[in-house]
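[Discussion] Sanity-checking designs against the backbone

I'm trying to build intuition for which residues belong where. Below is a structure token string of 402 positions. I'd appreciate it if someone posts a full sequence so I can compare it with mine line by line.
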């Protein structure tokens, strides 16, 4: 059940959003599809079942030169379709890609000093080193802006005493749900400055003394992604590895807005995948002496799935246009993430239903698609939190915190 399109039947991109790309971008998207078809699709189910990350494919992925497409001259629509296409084949790989590139590498572009960029940017862009984004904490997810407990204290390296002019920072605290956290070379760690309560960002070598990492086990979604619990115990980070451009949580919001856009594109990819699998199954599966697709209720379900998918692609094409105009605010992005997450949930549930009992085993892909959708529904702001962001924007009244 891995073929995305059936000859002579319309593709899931029913309104041809992809045709809005330039020819060079369509060619590059075709290169990505070839890579995914040859090196990912045949193996993604096994990686997911075993909860193993396929590090061996990273050189081929890097060779496509898709890191932070906007910095390479590509359009925002193309950047989104890259994530959707990856998700269509393997949501976990797409999640790795957006954590590394849209958070770690983009942070270097946005906040890195000339020295930090010189040391890390080329290697990170080409996946010779990998990165993570350590923001969420064990007791703070959606409220991490105000509740962040990880602390940073600046000291003089010679005395170990607090010193505003010191050249070393000491980190203490814990982070949770950190994608790529078990194997990354570096992580961007967000901590509260003990001196003034401001939020600081640090590039932390994952091999430093005092950093301990453990994989979060027993997940039912994104099993290939290596999420970690991370503890920092008196971890010493040089001043040269602090992001000098970050002094408050507000400075992170541009990064989070951009990554939320990419997660919204993941909802598109999930629906493309669900439609691919369900439509093929309905055409090929025989019941009562005829294909499932012969039955009216099955056709209705497939059309609902397609409608959700096309509507989602259209909304995200609109977001890409707003990005081009510099007008994609958090409220627009939050609406896309919340509304499309709900459409995605409906789409993958219908797809799972069409496959019947085969929809709950990973042999048929749909079970993996169905399970991974639950993670997308929650991360980069839950459905409820994103809904309330939009509610605040359209009423002028905040419903957060009671």
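Best answer:
Here's mine. Compare freely.
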């Amino acid at each position: 059940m891995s073929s995305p399109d059936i000859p002579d039947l319309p593709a899931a991109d029913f309104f041809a959003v992809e045709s809005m790309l330039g020819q060079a971008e369509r060619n590059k998207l075709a290169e990505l599809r070839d890579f995914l078809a040859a090196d990912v699709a045949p193996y993604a189910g096994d990686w997911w079942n075993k909860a193993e990350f396929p590090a061996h494919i990273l050189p081929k992925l890097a060779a496509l030169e898709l890191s932070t497409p906007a910095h390479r001259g590509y359009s925002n629509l193309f950047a989104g379709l890259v994530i959707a296409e990856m998700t269509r084949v393997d949501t976990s790989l797409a999640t790795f890609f957006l954590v590394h590139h849209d958070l770690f590498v983009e942070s270097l572009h946005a906040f890195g000093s000339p020295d930090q960029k010189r040391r890390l940017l080329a290697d990170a862009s080409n996946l010779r080193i990998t990165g993570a984004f350590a923001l969420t904490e064990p007791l703070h997810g959606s409220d991490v802006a105000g509740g962040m407990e990880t602390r940073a204290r600046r000291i003089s390296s010679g005395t170990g005493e607090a010193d505003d002019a010191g050249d070393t920072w000491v980190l203490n605290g814990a982070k949770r749900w950190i994608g790529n956290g078990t194997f990354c070379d570096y992580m961007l760690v967000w901590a509260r400055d003990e001196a003034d309560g401001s939020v600081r960002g640090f590039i932390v070598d994952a091999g430093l003394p005092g950093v301990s990492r453990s994989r979060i086990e027993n997940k039912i979604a994104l099993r290939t992604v290596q999420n970690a619990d991370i503890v920092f115990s008196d971890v010493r980070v040089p001043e040269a590895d602090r992001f000098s451009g970050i002094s408050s949580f507000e400075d992170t919001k541009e990064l989070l807005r951009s990554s939320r856009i990419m997660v919204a594109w993941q909802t598109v990819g999930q629906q493309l995948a669900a439609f691919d699998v369900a439509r093929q199954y309905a055409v090929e599966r025989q019941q009562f002496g005829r294909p499932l697709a012969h039955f009216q209720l099955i056709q209705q379900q497939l059309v609902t799935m397609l409608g959700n998918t096309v509507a989602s692609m259209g909304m995200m094409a609109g977001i890409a246009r707003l990005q081009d105009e510099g007008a994609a605010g958090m409220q627009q992005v939050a609406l896309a993430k919340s509304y499309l997450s709900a459409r995605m949930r409906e789409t993958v549930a219908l797809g799972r239903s069409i496959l019947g009992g085969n929809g709950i085993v990973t042999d048929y892909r749909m079970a993996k698609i169905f399970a991974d959708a639950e993670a997308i529904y929650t991360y980069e702001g839950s459905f409820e939190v994103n809904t309330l962001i939009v509610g605040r924007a359209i009423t002028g009244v905040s419903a957060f915190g009671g």
